[in-house]
Write a structure and sequence with these properties.
CATH architecture of the largest domain: Up-down Bundle
Helix content: over 70%
CATH topology of the largest domain: Growth Hormone, Chain: A
Strand content: under 5%
Order of helices and strands: HHHHHHHHHHHHHHHHHH
Distance between the termini: 42 Å
CATH class of the largest domain: Mainly Alpha
CATH superfamily of the largest domain: MFS general substrate transporter like domains
Radius of gyration: 23 Å
Number of helices: 18
Number of domains: 2
């Protein structure tokens, strides 16, 4: 473009207008997925790469917990019960995190917490090398993965919220969340099974070390994004731009002293979000029990390694609460791989759905109905899905319903939940979000575990009855969402005024 034509373009479309000549091909491609404007792409892409690596690491680890734990017919009950242990541990985790966040700046906070999880993976590797049995290892690793998953993702979105205003965050978060969706998809591609076979013996624990390397790269990226943001603020401060001086004061300071739980309980808006997420996780965890029960029995029956219904004649094979003894029926490699394959296939389908929704729908839904309206999509989908399952829990139906539900959760719902915190205070973005996305999530899981225990061990409910329970809880969840929407709008008006 010559000087005359460029000047004409500038006059017709001022800088910052979607018709601006500086919207080159790269921006045009990005604008398919999100309303990205000049100067916003680099930070959003760096955050997308960060969460891509984070989710890639998690989805490498997630099927491992199933392959290490789900090796007998009652493993679905075991899985539900361990959510309660995670909820108890989260009380201490959040208290420790809140204290640390009040003492160190955000980039140091991310470095220390992520390094802690990396060290845990190394410990698991050497525990296995030291001869620890698979069953207790599976229980410990399952609890650890549940804590790791919700904590690091909550911390990432707290960091992302801290980098953006409400107006810019709503436009760029769909692109950032695309990185998370791609991370989950890549981890479940068929080549990951070939990598497992290539690693040979002890492949589960070698994959843990690979995930640790990815987490280390996440630390480097987060620190780079932080320092880049600080430099940009200093440049704005030198130019005398409004708000730059205030941002410069807080960017490298610790958060104010306040506990995550205290922040949640003193704010009606945050408490409603906590209730929503807790109820949804009850629904999701109960759905995972349905999915696990149907899938594991089908995998074991197909594999032929042992009967689906093996009666327990030895009392030593059962411990309190229905948990199988570590000494009972050692897992077979064929079963471990069959279950690992089944859950990788399920997660692959989930992540393909999530990618399609993230690419084509999330940004447009935000534009059409706003953040508040987007909150209704997942509850309505879950309502229809579990209503269908309640008429018959066939494997194909359950797999597709759960894949659609989780795919929507990983794309639209996760982006929407993150956007809800754009209108909150800085301490709420980190501490309150961490408390909500960990303790209240696992609180929902714990209630689900109690329902599963009561239904399986006391009432003897069929799988379809658990789907019917979910239908009732979804209706309550929809009522909570209708209370969050006006509360969000009030927060938004207040944030814009400030």
């Amino acid at each position: 473009m010559n000087t005359d034509s460029r000047s004409a373009a500038q006059k017709e479309h001022p800088i910052g207008h979607p018709g601006d000549y500086r919207y080159h091909l790269g921006y045009r491609v990005l604008r398919i997925f999100a309303d990205i404007r000049p100067g916003e792409a680099s930070k959003a892409l760096l955050l997308a790469l960060n969460v891509f690596l984070l989710l890639l690491a998690y989805y490498i680890l997630k099927p491992l917990r199933e392959s290490l734990l789900l090796v007998d017919k009652n493993s679905a009950v075991v899985k539900s019960c361990l959510g309660g242990a995670q909820a108890v541990l989260f009380v201490f985790v959040i208290k420790g995190f809140s204290r640390l966040a009040s003492r160190v700046p955000r980039h140091v906070l991310i470095t220390w917490t992520t390094s802690f999880f990396i060290s845990n993976l190394v410990v698991f590797y050497f525990l296995h090398r030291g001869g620890m049995a698979v069953k207790p290892m599976g229980i410990l690793f399952f609890i650890w993965v549940g804590i790791f998953n919700y904590f690091v993702i909550a911390q990432f979105w707290g960091f992302a919220n801290d980098l953006y205003s409400d107006e810019v965050g709503k436009r760029t978060f769909p692109l950032v969340a695309l990185g998370a969706t791609l991370g989950g998809l890549v981890a479940t591609l068929p080549f990951m099974k070939k990598l497992r076979d290539f690693l040979g013996g002890n492949w589960e624990f070698k994959l843990m070390l690979i995930a640790g390397v990815l987490l280390f790269l996440c630390i480097l990226l987060a620190r780079h994004i932080h320092h880049r943001d600080v430099r940009k603020t200093r440049q704005d401060q030198e130019k005398g731009l409004a708000g730059a001086e205030e941002r410069a004061k807080v960017q490298e300071q610790p958060l104010k002293a306040s506990g995550g739980f205290r922040l949640v309980f003193k704010s009606r808006y945050l408490f409603l979000i906590a209730l929503m997420i807790g109820l949804y996780n009850f629904i999701n965890a109960t759905g995972e029990f349905i999915m696990t029960d149907v899938t594991v029995k089908a995998s074991i029956a197909t594999d032929g390694a042992r009967p689906v219904e093996r009666p327990r004649t030895n009392p030593e094979e059962q411990v309190a609460g229905g948990l199988p003894s570590a000494a009972a029926s050692p897992p077979r490699q064929t079963e471990s791989k069959a279950i690992h394959n089944a859950f990788m296939d399920y997660q692959f389908l989930t992540n393909v759905i999530a990618l399609v929704i993230q690419l084509l729908l999330v940004s447009r839904i935000f534009k059409w109905v706003g953040v508040g309206g987007a909150l209704l999509f997942l509850p309505l989908l879950a309502l229809g899905g579990y209503a269908l399952i309640s008429f018959g829990a066939v494997l194909l139906l359950v797999r597709w319903v759960k894949a659609l539900e989780n795919g929507t959760d990983y794309s639209l719902q996760n982006t929407t939940k993150a956007a809800l915190f754009l209108v909150t205070k800085r301490e709420e973005k980190y501490k309150a979000k961490a408390a909500i996305d960990t303790f209240f999530v696992r609180g929902g899981d714990t209630l689900s575990a109690l329902a599963v225990l009561a239904g399986t061990q006391v009432l003897g409910l069929r799988i379809e009855r658990f789907a019917l329970i979910n239908v009732v809880v979804v209706i309550v969840l929809i009522g909570i969402v209708f209370k969050i929407i006006p509360a969000y709008k009030r927060r938004k008006i207040k944030a814009e005024a400030n």
